[in-house]
Specification:
- The protein has about 475 residues and is α+β, with helices and mostly antiparallel strands.
- It folds into two domains: about 325 residues, Outer membrane efflux proteins (OEP), CATH 1.20.1600; about 90 residues.
- The protein is about 60% helix and about 15% strand.
- Strands 2, 3, 4, 5, 6, 8 and 9 form a seven-stranded antiparallel sheet that branches. Strands 1-7 form a two-stranded parallel sheet.
- A hairpin with a 5-residue loop joins strand 3 and strand 4.
- Helix 4 runs antiparallel to helix 9.
- The relative contact order is 0.11.
Length: about 475
């Protein structure tokens, strides 16, 4: 009896992923970026709602009524209908204009009326600085929301870049560990040959075996670290953690001139996203303080009203709106003097304290930002020197390895000497890659502080 052959799924070949590919995929699949973009939908309506407060507000109301009464003279029924369109508009100086047109139908009579009412605060609530404060808050909130979206995207791009480079570092560490293990196994084999030939005592093999086991452990740990680094990169991109990918073994580095410290600090004070958002928040705190002071004033309101029609004249049709005898005007002022000002004084004190605290915190944030930029620029200069030293070290260790090979060819160096020189060369190349990645990470961190990350990668945001 023939048994069916066991079909094993072929392992998919890994897809090569460049850093640019990883960033572009993250922009599409990263969940934090997707959520931040969805938040912008509701945030835009908040701004539109604030702008709408200073536009015409149309309205339409309608009523209908029926009444029935009985008396000695008989039964009387009345039907009334009223349709009232209206419109109101608020100005930046606090003026509120309202126009209404009641259209009342009662039996066979039609009594239209137009009423225009103007309310104007003269003390409390007067002026654009008070009335436009909510709109300015909405504009600042919109700007803050845009900066928050930009900051979210930058942070996720930075995470992709760091995890991508970390995977390169882990891969190189694993390759170094495998190469060291291979060299150690070779040295152990050579030692066994020399022991059999009676050139070395048997105790020499113990140290070699211990080193091989140590390097086997390092190799196992390196494979685990490689798997974790790959999963972390795919997770921040938003892809399946089991998706097979490959990255380059090295990094290309085009070192740029170390940025000018004073110019970089000035640029950061204008573009650093957390600091700019703090400046925007300080503007709102100043407006809140002004409004708290305005609430302490007496309230003096002017109210003017004019109406025409409504059956005031001799005619009760649409023509009555033009009847000179069917007009009414009124004007008046209302003065309100607050006597119990404890709550208002408490609000003013809170606003004043908040203003002082925000100003102190803003000064501290500026100082911290200056120090941070100075440290990042200094770190870039130091890492640039480390890259130069590492490159020289690679050349020297390679030269040393080549010399040991030539010595071995003429019998002046053992295979152990060659293996040791080779290990030093491999370690120096590993150190060079680490130094390059550290330099690139420092540049990436500085560009993030200056909010240049998206421009460098050619990313445009649709707010």
């Amino acid at each position: 009896m023939l048994l069916p052959a066991v079909v094993t799924a072929k392992k998919k070949p890994p897809h090569f992923m460049s850093l640019h590919d990883a960033i572009m995929l993250a922009l599409r699949f990263n969940p934090k970026i997707a959520n931040a973009e969805l938040d912008r939908i509701t945030q835009k309506y908040a701004l539109r709602e604030a702008e709408h407060q200073f536009e015409w507000q149309p309205g339409l109301t309608g009523t209908a009524g029926y009444s029935r009464s009985q008396s000695a003279t008989g039964t009387q029924t009345d039907e009334t209908y009223n349709i009232t369109p209206s419109a109101s508009k608020a100005s930046s100086f606090g003026t509120n204009l309202t126009v209404t047109m009641p259209n009342e139908f009662e039996g066979n009579q039609y009594n239209p009326e137009i009423t225009v009412e103007v309310k104007q605060p003269l003390l409390k609530g007067f002026g654009s600085r008070v009335n436009l404060a909510p709109l300015k808050d909405a504009y600042d909130n919109e700007l803050t929301n845009k900066l928050t979206l930009k900051d979210t995207i930058i942070r996720q791009v930075i995470n992709v870049i760091r995890d991508y480079r970390n995977l390169i570092t882990v891969n190189n560490n694993l390759a170094t560990a495998k190469q060291s293990l291979k060299s150690a196994i070779k040295r152990e084999k050579d030692t066994r040959i020399q022991i059999r030939a009676g050139r070395l005592p048997r105790t020499e093999i113990v140290e070699q075996q211990a080193q091989v086991q140590t390097l086997r452990l390092a190799d196992t740990r390196g494979q685990n670290a490689q798997s974790q680094a790959r999963h972390k990169l795919l997770e921040v991109i938003g892809l399946d953690p089991d998706h097979p990918i490959s990255v380059p073994h090295g990094v290309s580095l085009n070192k740029t001139r170390v940025p000018n410290l004073h110019q970089t600090i000035d640029y950061a004070l204008k573009h650093n996203l957390p600091y700019v958002k703090s400046l925007i928040g300080f503007r709102k705190v100043k407006r809140d303080l002004y409004i708290a002071k305005d609430n302490m004033r007496w309230q003096l309101d002017l109210d003017a009203q004019a109406s025409t029609g409504g059956g005031l004249g001799s005619r009760t049709t649409l023509v009555s709106l033009l009847d000179a005898k069917a007009n009414a005007e009124s004007v008046g002022v209302t003065l309100t003097i607050p006597l119990d000002t404890v709550q208002l004084k408490s609000q003013l004190a809170s606003a004043s304290v908040s203003f002082q605290q925000t100003r102190i915190n803003l000064t501290q944030k500026q100082r911290i930002l200056r120090t941070s930029i100075r440290d990042e620029v200094t770190n870039i200069a130091s890492l640039s020197q480390q890259v130069d030293i590492s490159e020289k070290q690679v050349k020297l260790t390679r030269r040393s390895y080549e010399l040991e090979v030539k010595k071995q060819q003429v019998g002046k160096a053992s295979s152990l000497d060659v293996s040791v020189a080779q290990d030093k060369w491999i370690q120096s190349k590993r150190s060079l890659i680490t130094a390059k990645i550290s330099y690139l990470d420092a540049e990436t961190s500085l560009n993030a502080s200056l909010a240049k990350t998206l421009d460098i990668w050619g990313i445009k945001i649709r707010y």
